[in-house]
TrEMBL record:
<dbReference type="InterPro" id="IPR000760">
    <property type="entry name" value="Inositol_monophosphatase-like"/>
</dbReference>
<dbReference type="GO" id="GO:0007165">
    <property type="term" value="P:signal transduction"/>
</dbReference>
<dbReference type="GO" id="GO:0006021">
    <property type="term" value="P:inositol biosynthetic process"/>
</dbReference>
<feature type="binding site">
    <location>
        <position position="109"/>
    </location>
    <ligand>
        <name>Mg(2+)</name>
    </ligand>
</feature>
<dbReference type="GO" id="GO:0046872">
    <property type="term" value="F:metal ion binding"/>
</dbReference>
<dbReference type="Pfam" id="PF00459">
    <property type="entry name" value="Inositol_P"/>
</dbReference>
<dbReference type="GO" id="GO:0008934">
    <property type="term" value="F:inositol monophosphate 1-phosphatase activity"/>
</dbReference>
<feature type="binding site">
    <location>
        <position position="106"/>
    </location>
    <ligand>
        <name>Mg(2+)</name>
    </ligand>
</feature>
<feature type="binding site">
    <location>
        <position position="108"/>
    </location>
    <ligand>
        <name>Mg(2+)</name>
    </ligand>
</feature>
<comment type="similarity">
    <text>Belongs to the inositol monophosphatase superfamily.</text>
</comment>
<feature type="binding site">
    <location>
        <position position="84"/>
    </location>
    <ligand>
        <name>Mg(2+)</name>
    </ligand>
</feature>
<comment type="pathway">
    <text>Polyol metabolism; myo-inositol biosynthesis; myo-inositol from D-glucose 6-phosphate: step 2/2.</text>
</comment>
<dbReference type="InterPro" id="IPR020550">
    <property type="entry name" value="Inositol_monophosphatase_CS"/>
</dbReference>
<keyword id="KW-0479">Metal-binding</keyword>
<feature type="binding site">
    <location>
        <position position="257"/>
    </location>
    <ligand>
        <name>Mg(2+)</name>
    </ligand>
</feature>
<dbReference type="GO" id="GO:0046854">
    <property type="term" value="P:phosphatidylinositol phosphate biosynthetic process"/>
</dbReference>
<keyword id="KW-0672">Quinate metabolism</keyword>
Amino acid sequence: MAGRISAEELDEIYAFATNLGKEAGRLLMSYANARMSDQSASAEQKFLEKDSAVDIVTKADEDVEAFIKNSIEAKYPTHKFIGEETYSKGQSRDYLIDDSPTWCVDPLDGTVNYTHLFPMFCVSIAFIVDSQPVIGVIDAPFLHQTFSSCEGRGAWLNGTQRLPLIRTPQIPSIPARAPGGCIFSCEWGKDRRDVPDGNMHRKIESFVNMAAELGGRGGKGGMVHGVRSLGSATLDLAYTAMGSFDIWWEGGCWEWDVAAGIAILKEAGGLVTTANPPEDPETAEIPEVRIGSRLYLAVRPAGPNDTETARQSQERLVREVWKRVRNLDYARPGA
Ligand code: IPD
Ligand code: CA
């Protein structure tokens, strides 16, 4: 049970959050529909650049965030609110999550997708207690998908399909030859500086290591089944919770990009740790991730096999990824 919030309160907050996610998703889709039905030049998406030409904000981001913020403040005036657009204006440099009951909201994750009408965009709402995301709601209106979870109550797709999707006769274990046989999801992110050994180059090297044939790349080749980038961190996590992705590895995201996805993935039985490999990936402890660390490695829910528990097989996969990826440098601003 979550800290100072009773089970009854949590049920009520969960129902409120799920309903809010769906309403906000409908609002977001109304902006997308308005553009699709408007044949004039004004249908062209207008956006403003924030930190760079790929870090953008639209009127939909701002209006959907205002709708969510007002709804939460009306219902839960004592709870803290952190939203992507509110933060951009405030620019705090600290870790944003503390022990207070907190709503952490991305009104539109996948803003670039939204501007191109690529359907992988969504509203992402998390409720956090004692620094742990205990409720997650992700509504992807163009996909007609709503993901939701609450601590101890399971993780769900559209309220009816429990995650991960394959559960019978049991949740599949991690393949023996992993990362072979796995789908690896990752993101290019927004740090596009073309500097030798910068984040973009380190990411590309890591992607190629994961993709290359076994034995290739000086032994680092992982020959994953496929490499995918949805362009939405929170949907990457939701698809990992579904079991559709086996691995998600990313650096650079902020609290609102991941909070709801982490809630859903963990409730489904997934594991989340840090993206950056320790000195000895084979023996190092696997740390709990700190929301706000900006470095994430997630592994899907797994079943046991003849020789390993579910957790052991997930940890094996974490170590196999760590052996193939580079350290990324995404300190918090000013840190
Ligand atoms: C971005 C997406 C992207 C991730 C970036 C995020 P936005 O969020 O989640 O997948 O790589 O780090 O900032 O800008 O679409 O809300
Ligand atoms: Ca986002």
